[in-house]
Amino acid sequence: MILHSQPNLRDILFTVQGSIVPAIIGRLAVIGAVSVIAVLAANVHPGIFARISAIPFTLIGIALSVFMSFRNGTCYARWWEGRQLWGQVIVACRGLARASADLDAAERRDLLVPACGFAAGLAARLRRQDEGAAIAAWCPGAETARHPNPTDAVLQQLGRHLLALAAAGRIGEIRYSVLEGYLAQLSAAQAACERIVTTPVPFAYSLLLHRTALVFCVTLPFALAGSLGWWTLLPVLLVAYTFFGLDALGHQLEDPFGTAPNALPLDALTRTVEREMLAALEAQDLPEPVPVRGHVLS
After folding, report:
1. Which of 209, 214, 261, 222 is nearest to 239 (CA)?
2. Hey, how many other C-beta atoms are within 10 angstroms of the C-beta on 67?
3. From CA 258, how far away is CA 264, in angstroms rounded?
4. Taking 60 as the threshold, does the pLDDT of residue 219 lie above it?
5. Distance from C-alpha of 245 to C-alpha of 8, rounded to nearest angstrom
6. Residue 196 contacts by C-beta under 8 Å, 6 or more apart in sequence?
7. Cα–Cα distance between 104 and 4 in angstroms, integer?
């Protein structure tokens, strides 16, 4: 996730890192080349594009802007829901730590350390990384390797641990119900995150916007070259930057758990859980918070 202060004039004019430009620079170069070809053709053959009116492009541009704004709003909603779900994960882990404060150190450790493994496994699962290895770093003895959902297996292990505590009389029915409720919150957050990952924005809808934006930006120079000459490059590249930039930004927000610059900082959120659970166990050496590198928090 990009962390940057409100951009000033210098940032607006010169900042590349943290912007969407690196993702669309190739398409902008193609549109720039097409614009140059259109201007050269208009100079060599004056009037060749005289019958191409800019009015249809105005109408198409307005419609395209509306549809693209709708798609980006949908993608941002997915991004924001993902952040809310990870907030729910942090809240539930804090609840586990608070509700287990009076348990023996070993019993409490068997409850809070797997919570760290759950957070690490969930982050790896959502990013399609090695889920088992992420969990094994915290739960080396857990039997999750052959489980189709290793992260959920951690919750099942925690559930069995709570049942054992209840059967031994270590926790009462009310305490068991409270702790089990936090596990249910973790399970619900995982299922909702998996729903976001496995249900992308409909491909046909995204393809329609991609094609329309590309055709619009490729043909626009031929409508402006005859009247604007070399000034055609300025409005065409500005329009292309806007449309292609919104398209690329929506694509990044569509997968809020990915590794793109605008994705959610799952490493930092996981580290938050780890630090707070270890602090609850009164560990001496806490892992450092994930640093911000180049205004990007991973």
Report:
1. 214
2. 14
3. 7
4. yes
5. 20
6. 78, 81, 82, 85, 256, 257
7. 44
Q: Whole-angstrom Cα distance, residue 65 to residue 253?
A: 18
* 88 Cβ contact partners less than 8 Å away, ≥ 6 residues apart: 185, 188, 189
Q: Chain centroid to CA 38: how far?
A: 39
In one-letter notation, the amino acid at residue 228 is L
- What are all long-range contacts of 168-172, with beta carbons under 8 Å and residues at least 24 apart? 170/103, 170/104, 170/107, 171/103
User: What sign has the CA pseudo-torsion 39, 43, 48, 50?
Assistant: positive
The amino acid occupying position 121 is G
Q: Are 2 and 215 in contact (CB under 8 A)?
A: no
Mean pLDDT of 152-178: 93
**Cα 283 from Cα 95, distance rounded (Å):** 18
> What is the number of other CB atoms lying within 10 angstroms of the CB of residue 276?
18
226 pLDDT above the threshold of 70: yes
Asked if 92 and 192 count as a contact pair (C-beta separation under 8 A), the reply is: no
CB atoms near residue 222 (< 10 Å):
21
Alpha-helical runs (H) found in the chain: 9-14, 21-44, 55-99, 105-126, 131-136, 150-167, 173-198, 203-228, 233-254, 266-280
- Tens digits of per-residue pLDDT, 111-143? 999 999 999 999 999 999 999 899 999 988 766
- Spatial separation of the C-alpha atoms in residues 182 and 184, rounded to whole Å: 5
Give the separation between CA 256 and CA 106, rounded to whole angstroms: 36
How far is the C-alpha of 223 from the C-alpha of 290, rounded, in Å? 50
282 conformational bin, left if phi > 0, alpha if psi -120 to 50, beta if neither:
left
Residue 257 and residue 263 in contact, taking contact as beta carbons nearer than 8 Å: yes
Q: Name the pTM for this structure.
A: 0.88
Nearest C-alpha neighbor of 3 from the set 17, 22, 24, 13:
17
